[in-house]
Design brief:
Elements lengths: L7 E6 L3 E2 L5 E2 L9 E7 L3 E2 L5 E2 L8 E4 L5 E5 L2 E7 L3 E5 L1
Antiparallel strand pairs: 1-4, 1-9, 2-3, 4-7, 5-6, 7-10, 8-9
Length: about 90
């Protein structure tokens, strides 16, 4: 599995979306998703004084992230999004 460095978080967004009528939308017809499941979390951000700040999210949580943030990567046939923790907006309960 991928192990993020520093304050980075690896997210897995849902690949397809079904409308209320049950129609599955093609990926190019959808808006980019803004919620995703946290798959892996880095060790945290290092401050200027050398102190390390622990990440505020944990694996398994669902988060809301900035719409055009992060880098898409493919690993072992699956697509992931690698974002900085500062690009996360909220934890979805």
């Amino acid at each position: 599995m991928l192990k993020p460095l520093g304050d980075r978080v690896i997210l897995q967004a849902q690949e397809e979306e079904t409308t209320v009528g049950g129609i599955v939308l093609a990926s190019n017809a959808q808006e980019k998703p803004q919620t995703a499941k946290v798959v892996a979390v880095g060790d945290g951000r290092v401050l200027d004084n050398g102190e390390k700040v622990a990440p505020s999210v944990k694996e398994g949580e669902t988060v809301l992230f900035d719409k055009y943030s992060g880098t898409e990567v493919k690993y072992e046939g699956a697509s992931y999004l690698v974002v900085h923790e500062k690009d996360l907006v909220a934890i979805v309960d």
